[in-house]
Amino acid sequence: MKAVTYKQYGSPAVLNLVDIKKPQPKHNEVLVKIYATTVTSGDARLRSSDFPPVAWLLVRLLYGFFKPKKEILGHEFSGIIEAVGKDVTRYKVGDEVVGTPTMLPTGSYTEYICVPEERKKGVLGLKPRNLSFNEAAALPVGGMTALFLLKKAQLNKGQKVLIYGASGSVGSYAVQIAKEQDATITAVCSSSNFDMVKSLGADDVLDYKEQDYSLLEQQFDIVFDAVGKTSKSKARKILKKGGQFVSVKALTSPTQEHLEELCRLAEDGNVRPFIDKAFPISEIVKAHEYVDKGRKRGNVVIEVVKQ
Ligand SMILES: NC(=O)c1ccc[n+]([C@@H]2O[C@H](COP(=O)([O-])OP(=O)(O)OC[C@H]3O[C@@H](n4cnc5c(N)ncnc54)[C@H](OP(=O)(O)O)[C@@H]3O)[C@@H](O)[C@H]2O)c1
Prior knowledge:
By secondary structure, this protein is α/β, with parallel strands linked by helices. It has helices at 41-48, 53-63, 133-137, 140-152, 169-180, 194-200, 232-235, 256-267, 284-292, and strands spanning 2-6, 15-19, 29-38, 77-84, 96-99, 112-116, 124-126, 160-164, 184-189, 204-207, 220-225, 239-247, 275-280, 299-303. The strands form three sheets. Strands 3, 4, 5, 6, 7, 13 and 14 form a seven-stranded mixed sheet that branches. It has a five-stranded parallel sheet with strand order 10-9-8-11-12, covered by helices on one side. A two-stranded antiparallel sheet has the order 1-2. The longest helix is centred in the middle third of the chain and has 13 residues, at 140-152.
């Protein structure tokens, strides 16, 4: 089967489409034929190993000091179950699924992956029926991060929420999840993305290149930093007393329940992944070059099976 591997850190050119052995599911695993995966900003950063000094050391210790320990990148996927181990009870052959390979020995830039039915880390769920495989592949990472952080911020119905960096993957989900809770949303992004974030549910928009959001006169219940480019000290100026600041810079630990809630939100039509571009897996280098620019809107999908 085909997979994309990287054996050294560096530019997108370190990614290679190669043939590797197809895995066989163990008794407790399902074998998923992957239809789509994505290039998250996390994939691009892991590949380039582009982190500030302290984080760099930690990431290298975790992910491989001189070269990547896990040679297949990719943090989310959609696909169809092709085989199940004899102890699997929740899934059957033919189920359309969505998931993350967190803590598994390989990532999702591959045609097939074996996933345990029950896991401590990483999740698997049934694909929302109204989403294409391309859309579903882009749901878990950005969606679960947004949901996790909005829960941490104790989002309540009708609150005022400012989302900084609303046009990225996490931001685009945060806008939609907050809207579903009838929040009044101010989205901070470039003016070229105003239409996009309004279509997702933003009420007010503000261009970060032209206006300093911390000088707004309004007060907010929540400031959500969805791109890791603002700070609590800045956000504090516009937070109500007891208001919450949350950021993607924090460690998150989304669970199976988060994925299931997200899939329900998608099936009910309240969340729809925003797809910026889709590339065939043969163009993985181009896809990483695009994400490296830091300007992607929502999500960048890799079609493993042409749709
Ligand atoms: N903690 C976690 O579990 C977790 C999970 C997922 C992601 N993350 C992190 O979250 C961050 C965001 O990832 P993402 O994939 O959602 O988005 P992304 O692709 O990194 O963000 C791209 C978007 O951010 C906008 N942007 C860039 N600089 C900006 C700035 N200074 N102010 C406001 N917007 C700006 C860009 O719009 P313009 O072109 O208009 O500037 C673009 O639409 C990354 O650092 C990622 O590593 C963390």
